[in-house]
Amino acid sequence: MYLGLKDRVAIVTGGTRGIGLATAKALAVEGCVVAVCGRTPVELDGLFSYTVDVTRPEELTGFVNAVHERFGRLDILVNNVGGSMGGGGFQASTVEQWRGVFELNVFSTLVASKAAIPHMKAAGWGRIVNVSSIWGKEGGGGAAYNGAKSAVISMSKAMARDLAGDGILVNAVAPGSVYFPGGGWDKRMQADREKIERFVQTDMPLGRFGSPEEVANLIVFLSSAAASYMTGSCVVADGGQSHSNI
Ligand SMILES: NC(=O)c1ccc[n+]([C@@H]2O[C@H](COP(=O)([O-])OP(=O)(O)OC[C@H]3O[C@@H](n4cnc5c(N)ncnc54)[C@H](OP(=O)(O)O)[C@@H]3O)[C@@H](O)[C@H]2O)c1
Hints:
- The chain has helices at about 20-30, 55-70, 95-125, 145-165, 185-190, 195-205, 210-220, and strands at about 10-15, 35-40, 50, 75-80, 125-130, 170-175, 235.
- The chain is built from 7 helices and 7 strands; from the N terminus they run E-H-E-E-H-E-H-E-H-E-H-H-H-E.
- It is about 45% helix and about 15% strand.
- The protein has a 7-stranded parallel beta sheet with strand order 3-2-1-4-5-6-7, sandwiched between helices.
- By secondary structure, the protein is α/β, with parallel strands linked by helices.
- The two termini are about 25 Å apart.
- Strand 4 (about 75-80), helix 3 and strand 5 (about 125-130) form a beta-alpha-beta unit.
């Protein structure tokens, strides 16, 4: 399959570990120049790493513009950064947690996209992939996270319909539970191995977690020339975990 990714310039927010890092590496293998960001400074072979807190809009906008200025173009934006900030049901959640979760998942996606779109419009080509979750498509996970990831899917659809005439395609991905060392599921596993092993056996039809690379493959496809008829979709990669028919 022709992906047409050679020499494309890509940004992956929250790309220093997990799904983001796997996506950044996979895009680089396809020939992209890739910039990632996280709050913790890190050196990553073959990637350009920036220290950015995405909940600070000026910092995030500055990062997007700095990448465009440094490499002379910006073709692909993967809004990967996100998280549940502790999770919990509605009654356990606080207003502050809802604000924090929306800042991290929804407003980071909005701010980075608003910064990237003028560069993509000028070039007449762009791909934006927003990382949601199966908990954006159906009830589940923490209450605030559930709401935020639904908002990411809804915003992706609005962006896609609005930007279709500008050559910019926008899609969301909805991963199921993804395991990697140092990730959220690894921490839950360390805290209660038996409980998590039971969860995998009962809730994961393939009998295992997904890997960051399995989600990255989907994101790379949606970032590519090969996905030329896809916009406004939310594509699930969950090993059959979710129950939604739509
Ligand atoms: N893992 C799963 O099971 C799963 C399932 C469905 C959806 N997702 C979604 O997939 C995405 C990635 O999750 P993940 O589990 O692979 O990775 P993760 O462990 O949540 O790591 C996220 C990345 O974001 C960075 N980050 C966190 N807060 C940040 C901030 N305020 N500013 C800048 N960077 C920040 C982290 O680096 P620093 O800590 O250094 O900032 C790291 O590079 C998220 O949107 C998540 O909701 C994950």
